[in-house]
Amino acid sequence: MTFNHLPTVMQRMNVIHRVFDSAGKKIYLVGGIVRDLYGNATSIDELDIDLTTDATPEEIREIIKPIAENVWLSGERFGTIGAHVNGKTVEITTHRSESYVSDSRKPIVQFSQHIEEDLSRRDFTVNSMAIDLSTGEVIDPFNGQTDFSNGVLRTPLDPAISFSEDPLRMLRAARFTCRYDLSPTKEMIKSIRKLAPRLSIVSPERIREEFDKLLCVENPESGFELLLKTGIYKQFLPEIKDKSNIRKYGGYKNLSSLSPNPTLRLAALLLNLSSKKCQNRMKEMKYSNERISKTQLLIKSTKTIEMKPVDKEEYRRWHYQIGDLRDAAIELAATNKKSHTIIQEMKRTQQSLEHELDDFTLPLTGRAIMDLLEIEEGPEIGHALQYLREIRFQKGPITREAAEEAIQSWWDQARANPKTTI
Q1: Considering the domain 151-233, what is its CATH architecture?
Q2: pTM of the model
Q3: How far apart are CA 375 and CA 391, in angstroms?
């Protein structure tokens, strides 16, 4: 294998390497972009451009400033300066080593003057390669090219050292296993088993972000098998091994059959949880309230399919409540073979309703109901709107005149029988 598109990338980075050369500093293309170039990436425009240098963050800032459209310093304390150069986003980081103390969630950053030291502190050998922008020389002290070609996932240092320095790498190993079709070494698997509890020092936000990346891999099953084999899943999502979920919906074994959407696939893993437990688990992983709500709605709507919402009234209700998640709910429900017949009946119902499903807007607003009934704003307005919504579900679209008659009749009956709850 060769480094595909490398001449093009070198040409694009020409202005950067020249300013660093002029300052007497080395600059290297490093990490994922080198791996992907070696793996014959089809589109270089989608690759993140990561660079590393022996210049300090302060020196990087001064060197890059004359050629950059803009510069941002949010990562400066970690040694990273970001910039736009010739319309491209680049991140330039001082050679570094970072590790965690035994009980801290924040890394200790130490800078280095040597590219080999920087590469030794990276997660996997396939990411521990660099290309000297001045000469085009490939620096590969840990045989990342050979490992990538042979389908091997290993750490540049002893895995116990690499995983102790940043325990999130143990979770990342699952993603690389399935994303690049790599097999972790026995030493790596053994270390993950032993060090799995150390994941607890990593922030839930970082764990969540990495897990979502795993969920986005087209065929993530081998990555999940690694999580199960090592037991690390217990540290953040023990529901992965829910046997009843696997038996009914396939669980993690069916993720490859679902679209690589993290919300859809997480819902597949949490299908058997109660709404409260689902909410608590996602809160522990620091998911946003919006993401939690979408996941719970998706799960609820998927389970509703099992209750056969195939007649027009129940289908209208289901269609309205699920909103834009309809296709995802059907896709998820289809992982249970027993739902296939129901889904086909639902599709026939949908076709029979045609365009009436396009708009569920009620013919009366809250203001219009207040004017009609000559009442002030209060809880009765919400009840009235819900009453109209139920009519919409039962009978389909209604005219304004019919809606006014229905609301007036409903209100008159309520006043005639004060004990009736509106």
Answers
A1: Orthogonal Bundle (1.10)
A2: 0.88
A3: 22
